[in-house]
């Protein structure tokens, strides 16, 4: 979509390139420009420059350069509209959307909030008595606590409606929980939690939103792996587990694996491009 010019002008005026780049790169002033270590290629002396006057960056090493939006596209690996939304959020500006888009956007945001709250709930449970079976499973798989934290892992309890009760108490409707794929209709007018007694692996997109969940059983029961179905915020062919972390890797190339836990163990072993 095209953003109105007046909005774009305000966005760039409120997104000073020195501030934005400065939150990723340590900059020191040399003459009228600032210099630092290039975030896009590996180097020991800073050939990455920022011009406050021209509001641009340029690297004399890898020749990358551009304005503030370009910087976010490169650094956060985002397409142009998402880079604009990213900067708008940072600057506290509301992105102008069309009326239909706005309503869809609101519903979408509710589902993302719900997923985030569910992920936090599972994450907390992992540290509590209810999470013991999952903690023991992680120990057996030699997955360290720091790794589990890094991936935001959680535990779903061995019960039928714990998440359902917790999230409705927070103000989410059953329709929203259904739409997010977190509960299941029992066809008798009731609902129950989809994920029970499982290791929970939130699927986080490159913008940092929890869009879905992967999960694994702890015993021999089936199905071994259960993942969220497609939802208004989750399209399987557009999201890769772990890409939110791998996009920051300085390693060459990318390691593509079949299983979520393969990704986790590779990251733990230092292959943060998995
Ligand atoms: Zn460079």
Brief characterization of the structure:
The chain is an alpha+beta fold.
Q: Please give the domain count.
A: 2
Q: Please, how many helices? A: 11
Q: Assign an overall shape.
A: globular
CATH class descriptor name of the largest domain:
Alpha Beta
Rg, Å, rounded:
22 Å
Instruction: List bound small molecules.
Output: zinc ion
Q: Please tally the β strands and state the result.
A: 11
Description:
The chain is built from 11 helices and 11 strands. It folds into 2 domains: 5-91, Zinc finger, CHC2-typedomain (DNA Primase, Chain A), CATH 3.90.580; 104-268, Alpha-Beta Complex (DNA primase DNAg catalytic core, N-terminal domain). The radius of gyration is 22 Å and the shape is globular. The strands form 3 sheets. The protein has a 5-stranded antiparallel beta sheet. It has a 4-stranded antiparallel beta sheet with strand order 6-9-10-11. The longest helix is centred in the middle third of the chain and has 28 residues, at 99-126. The model has no long low-confidence stretch (mean pLDDT 93). α3 (68-75) packs across α4. It is an alpha+beta fold and 274 residues long. It starts with a helix and ends in a 6-residue tail after the last helix. A hairpin with a 2-residue loop joins β1 (28-30) and β2. Zinc ion binds at residues 38, 40-41, 48, 59, 61-62, 64. Residues 38, 40-41, 48, 59, 61-62, 64 line the site of zinc ion (ZN).
Descriptive key words:
5-stranded antiparallel β-sheet, alpha+beta, binds zinc ion, 2 domains, globular, DNA Primase, Chain A, single chain, DNA primase DNAg catalytic core, N-terminal domain
């Amino acid at each position: 979509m095209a953003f109105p010019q007046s909005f774009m002008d305000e966005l760039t005026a409120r997104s000073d390139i020195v501030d934005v780049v400065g939150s990723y790169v340590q900059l020191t002033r040399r003459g009228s420009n600032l210099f630092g270590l290039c975030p896009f290629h590996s180097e020991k002396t800073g050939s990455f420059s920022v011009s406050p006057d021209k509001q641009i960056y340029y690297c004399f090493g890898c020749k990358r350069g551009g304005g503030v939006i370009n910087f976010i596209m490169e650094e956060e690996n985002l397409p142009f509209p998402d880079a604009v939304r990213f900067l708008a959020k940072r600057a506290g500006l509301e992105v102008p959307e069309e009326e239909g888009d706005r309503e869809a956007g609101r519903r979408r945001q509710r589902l993302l909030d719900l997923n985030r709250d569910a992920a936090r709930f599972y994450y907390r449970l992992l540290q509590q008595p209810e999470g013991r079976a999952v903690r023991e499973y992680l120990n057996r798989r030699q997955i360290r606590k720091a790794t589990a934290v890094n991936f935001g892992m959680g535990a779903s309890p061995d019960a039928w409606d714990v998440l359902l009760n917790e999230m409705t108490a927070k103000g989410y409707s059953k329709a929203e929980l259904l739409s997010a794929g977190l509960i299941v209709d029992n066809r008798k007018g009731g609902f129950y939690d989809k994920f029970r007694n499982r290791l929970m692996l939130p699927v986080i997109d490159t913008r940092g939103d929890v869009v879905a969940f992967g999960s694994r059983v702890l015993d021999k029961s089936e199905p071994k792996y259960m993942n969220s179905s497609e939802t208004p915020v989750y399209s399987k062919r557009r999201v890769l587990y772990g890409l939110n972390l791998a996009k920051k890797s300085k390693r060459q190339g990318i390691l593509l694996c079949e299983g979520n836990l393969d990704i986790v163990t590779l990251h733990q072993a230092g292959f943060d491009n998995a």
